[in-house]
Amino acid sequence: MSTNQPPQPSADEPSGAPGAAGAGVPDARRRRTILIAVCIALMAVIASVSGLNVAQPDLAVSFGASQSTILWIINIYTLSLAALLLPLGALGDRWGRKPMLLAGLALFGVANVVAGLAPSAEVMLAARLFSGVGAAMIMPITLAVITSTFPKEERGRAIGVWTGVAGGGGILGMFLSAALVDVASWRWLFVLPVALVAVALAMALRSVPNSREKSRHAFDTVGALTSVVAVVALIFVLQEGPERGWTAPVTLLGLAVGVIAAVGFVAWELSRGDAALLDVRLFGERSLAGGSITLLAVFGVQAGIFVVLFPFLQAVLGWSGLLSTLALMPMAVLMMMASGLAPKLAARIGARSTMAAGILLAGVGLALMAAFVSVDGGYLSVLPGMLAMGTGMGLSMTPSTEAITGSLPRGRQGVASALNDVTREFGTALGVALLGALLSSGYRSAIDSRLAGLPRGAADTAREGVANAVGAADGAGAHGRALIHAARESFVDGWQQAMWAGVAVMAVLFLYVVARGPQGGDGTAEGSDDTTDEFRVAASSAR
C-alpha cells in the first residue's frame, strides 16, 4: 500500500527505537518493561468492561435509577469503546503511538475518578462515555506498540501474553470487582482501573518508544465517521434487541442504519484505494479473513458462555457473586497459559493447525458442558468443559491476532490492532445476544410443561427466568420447592440448547479454518516487515 511508509521517529524517540531507519530494537530488558506497561494498560481497559456487572443492584439503589438506566451505564462504555477503536487507532498511527497512549491513559484515569465520585446517574453516564473514549485510545495502541517494537522472532510470544491478558483479564477484573463490592462499596470498583492507569502511565512515560506513520494522504474522515455510525448502530441492535424485542421499531431502525452505514463504509473505502482508512481489499487474503472470523466466533462463544454460567452458578447452585466469579478462574488461568503456549506450538505445527486444534478443543469443551451439566452434578459437571474451553480459546486467540496484525504493514499497526479489537467487541455482543436468546427460549419452552398445578402468579413469574422463579418461591407456599426444582431443571434444558448451538458454531469454524485458515507456517506477523510492505506496494500499484 503506497500510503504506508516505515514509521518515522519522533523527537523523543530513542535512537534504538523501532521506526528509525536502520536502527535496532530496544534491548531485552526494555522490551520486557514495554510489554508489562502495555499489558497493565490493557488490563485496566478490560477490567472496566465487566466490572460494573457485579454492582447493578447497588447502583440502582444509590442513584434511584431504573434497570434500563443501569444497563446503559454499563453498555455505554462498550459502545463508545467499540465505535472509536478504528478511527482512533488510525490517528495513533499518524500522530504517534506514545502520545495517543499517554493521552488515553490520562483521559481514562480522570473519567474513572469522576465515575467513582459520581453524585447522579447522569454524571455516571458521562463519565462512562469518556472512559470508553479513553479506552479506545489505549486498547489498539497497546497491541500496535508490541507489533511495531518487538523483533519478528519474539513478536509471537509478546502477542501471546497480550491475548492472554485480553482473554483472561475480564474474568480477573470481575473477581476483584466482586471482592471490592462485598467488602466495601461499588465506588471502590474504580480504584482498580485508576491504580492500573497510574502504574501504566509511569512505566509508559519511561519505556514505551514512539513510532508513527508518515502518509501522503489526508486522514479518511468520511470513512471514520461511517465506521462509527455502523458500529454504534449494530452494537446497539445486539445490546438492545434482546431487551426491547428484535422486531421493535427502534431495533429495526438501528439495524437498517447499521447495515446502510456498513455498506457505505465498504463502498467508500474501495473508492479511496491507497488513501482508505482500512483497505477492505485485504479481507480477500486468508490471514486477515481467517483471523477475523476466528476471533469473532471464539469471543462470541466465550461471551455467551458467561451469560449461561453466571445464572447457573448463582440461581441454580445458589452461590454468591464473588464465589461464582472465583469459579471461573480455572478457565481464565488455562486460557492465559494456552495463549503463551500458542506461539511455540504454531512455530512447530503452523498457525492454521494451532488455530484448528484450539477451535476443536473449545468445541469439545462446549459438548462436555452440554452433555454432562445437571443440577445435582453442580459445578463439577461443567468444570471439565470449562477447562477444555479455556485451553482451546487460548490456543486459537494468539495465532488469530497475529494473522490480523500481520496482514497490515508496520505503518498501519494501529489500524490492524483496532480491527482486531473491533472484531472481538462485535463477537462479544453477538454471542451475548444469540446464545442468551437461545438460553431464554429454551428455558421458557422447558418450564411450561413443569408448571402444572402451580399458582398462576408464581408460574408467570417463573417463566421470566430462573432468578425470578427462585425469588418467587418464598411467596409460593407449599409449591415453593416444586417451583425452584422446575426452574432449575428448565434452565439446564436451556443451557444445553445454547451449548449445542455453540458446538455447531465451533464445528463450522473448524472446517473453515482447516480449508481457508492462514497459510503462514509459524503464525508470525508477515505484514509487519518492510519487505512485505514493499511487496504490498507493488501489488497495490498493479491493481
TrEMBL record:
Keyword field contains rRNA-binding: no
Region: Disordered, residue numbers: 1-25, 521-543
Topology class, membrane: Multi-pass membrane protein
Keywords: Antibiotic resistance, Membrane, Transmembrane, Transmembrane helix
Record localization: Cell membrane
UniProt feature, compositional bias: Low complexity: 10-25
Domain of life of the organism encoding this protein: Bacteria
Transmembrane segments: 34-55, 70-88, 100-119, 125-146, 158-180, 186-205, 217-238, 250-268, 288-313, 319-342, 354-373, 498-515
Keyword Transmembrane helix among record annotations: yes
Chief place where the protein resides: membrane
Family annotation (PANTHER family): EXPORT PROTEIN, MAJOR FACILITATOR SUPERFAMILY MULTIDRUG TRANSPORTER MFSC
Name this protein carries in UniProt: MFS transporter
Organism of this sequence: Streptomyces durmitorensis
Source species taxonomy: Bacteria, Bacillati, Actinomycetota, Actinomycetes, Kitasatosporales
